[in-house]
Amino acid sequence: MSENYQRTLPVIDDENRAFWHGGADGRLHLMRCQDCGYWLHPPGPVCPECLSDGVTIETVSGEATVEALTVNYKVWGAGMQVPYVIAIVELAEQKGLRLTTNIVGIDPDAVTIGMPVRVVFEQDEDVWLPLFEPRPA
Ligand SMILES: [Zn+2]
After folding, report:
1. Which residues make up the environment of ion ligand 1, defined by Cβ < 5 Å?
2. CA of 40 to the centre of ligand 1 (A)
3. What is the mean pLDDT of the chain?
4. How is the chain split into domains, by residue range?
5. Which tens digits make up the pLDDT trace of 121-132?
6. For residue 58, with 0-12 CB atoms within 10 Å meaning exposed, 13-18 middle and 19 or more buried, which class applies?
């Protein structure tokens, strides 16, 4: 174990590069099928809805709703800040388009299911982690 707590950063490949690096411009980038409009997350080479390979990167609004959450109070490593919220959020663009993330900018105990949130990015080395903070409804 290292002295300081570090997130485990994702392994970047051609399919997920836009998602993890796209936050450099402050926008959330996801793959979208150009034939049927379906958003793909996690990314893949083929649309699961219509089997088209005409998928490309587009930006989403970054607005989402908290769908499920848990508050972690346990310190797993030195330098780790607790408590913090691990949440599943559903993006505004599509029913079932979900990300697992952290909710920041609010008392962890005040986060509720159904809370409207918006994306913010935290840079860690060459990765921009999409986190979410409360937004006005
Ligand atoms: Zn499609």
Report:
1. 33, 35-36, 38, 47, 49-50, 52
2. 9
3. 91
4. 17-134
5. 999 988 999 999
6. middle
